[in-house]
Design goal:
With 63 residues, this protein is of the alpha+beta class. It has one domain (6-51). It is 22% helix and 14% strand. It is globular and about 30 Å long. The model has no long low-confidence stretch (mean pLDDT 88). This is Uracil-DNA glycosylase.
């Protein structure tokens, strides 16, 4: 056993996603263009809590 949980392995890193952005709104500083919302938490966490599945719209940023 590796010691990592399945949720840790399946977590989406929003900072590496093309759709993630930082907003100017102090109350909702993180946003997702794919799902069109802003939140206090990372969008991938909100999607997981809302739908029960990991984010399906993750698109890696181009380097």
């Amino acid at each position: 056993m590796t010691g990592k949980s399945k949720t840790c392995e399946q977590r989406v890193n929003c900072y590496r996603c093309h759709h993630f952005y930082i907003t100017w709104d102090r109350q909702f500083p993180r946003g997702c263009r794919a799902y069109n919302f802003k939140s206090t938490a990372l969008p991938s966490v909100v999607v997981k809590q809302s739908s029960g599945t990991t984010c399906l719209k993750f698109a890696a940023k181009q380097s």
